[in-house]
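Hi everyone,

Forwarding the result from last night's run.
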Amino acid sequence: MTPAIQSRLGGRQIVILLLALATGLIHLWLGLNAGLIMFILNGLGYLALAAAGYLPIPPLASLRVWARWALLAFTAVTIIGWIFIGERNAIGFIAKAIEVALVILLIVDLRRK
C-alpha cells in the first residue's frame, strides 16, 4: 500500500490522535461554555482533520497525507493565534503544550512517510 492509503496505526499515530482529541475537546468545551463559535469550529476542525488523517475511513484514504499536513498547519495557526490574542491562563497553557507536542509528532510522522 502507498503511504496515502495506509491505515495501520502505530504508537505515534495513536498519540497524535489522542493529542488532537484532547485539544479538540478542550476547544469545544471552551466554545460551548462561553458561546464562542471560533472555539467550537476550532475543536471540530481538530476532530475532523485527525479523523481524516489517521482513522481508516476508506473514502478519505487518498486524502490522508493531505489531511495530516492540514492538521499540522491548523495546529500551527492555532498556536500563533493564541500567542497574539489568547488568554494566558492554565487551560490555555495546557492546550498549547498539547499542540506543541502535536506539531512535533506530526512533523516526525510526516517525515517518515
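The mean pLDDT is 94.

Cheers,
N.
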